[in-house]
Amino acid sequence: MASILIFADLHLGRPGAPGMEWALDVLETTDADACVCLGDIIDRKADAATYVPQAQKVMSRACKRFSDVHFISGNHDVHHKLSFPSSVTVHPTEVHSFHCAGAIIITAAVATDPDPRTLAFPTRGSNEPHVGLLHTSATGEFSKSMCLPAMPEELQSCGYDAWILGHVHKPRVLAKSPFIGWVGMGNAVLYDVPTASLTYL
Fold it and tell me: Which residues form the Calcineurin-like phosphoesterase domain (predicted)?
């Protein structure tokens, strides 16, 4: 097995959001080699005293279930001072890569709200599996706020096996091959590295 559990847009503290218990249940009932939170674990308007500890509990539970845990901030997260266990890799805002579950992951965290930066991603440099993870509004048609805008054609030109996105709250798909689409609020995906396929949970 070489798989990655990815969730995004939990928006703790937002009315109608899935909530901490939903996240804890997904973490407890899903088997994977690694886990990634792809941004907006907490809502910008959330009461920090109540919901920052909930965000910490979610990521702490992830560390107990998975040996490799990552956090890539979204535009709502930058409004809070978040701290996680030392075993959580918190990723920087510059474009970079790291190894995860047998894949090369390319990403950059959100720096500001809004974040209008247009990032340049490297083209695929080897036959190893490549996956892009990005908290992005993409073309902007499904979002009210600008967040690391990117055109699907630009993402496809990198030659990666998939681009899995956070920020948009519905699990919309921009392209099927290679896959480019959002996880969505109240959803998680299990990405299978060898087959470059994903399952919505």
Answer: 3-171
Q: Are 146 and 115 in contact (CB under 8 A)?
A: yes
The 8 Å CB, 24+ separation contacts for 195-200 are 196/129, 196/161, 196/162, 198/162, 198/164, 200/171
Looking up tokens 């308007």, which residue turns up? 45
pLDDT score, position 3: 98
Q: Which residue do the tokens 């965000």 mark?
A: 55
For the chain, the helix, strand and coil percentages under 3-state DSSP, each to the nearest 5: 20, 30, 55
User: What local confidence, expressed as pLDDT, does residue 1 receive?
Assistant: 61
**Domain boundaries in the chain?**
3-200
Task: Count the residues in the chain.
Answer: 201
CB 153 within 8 A of CB 159: no
Q: Is residue 22 helix, strand or coil?
A: helix
Please state the pTM of the whole predicted model.
Answer: 0.97
**106 DSSP β-pair partners:** 97, 132
CA distances from 17 to 12, 91, 164, 171, 185 (A): 7, 24, 20, 15, 7
| Residue 87: per-residue pLDDT | 98
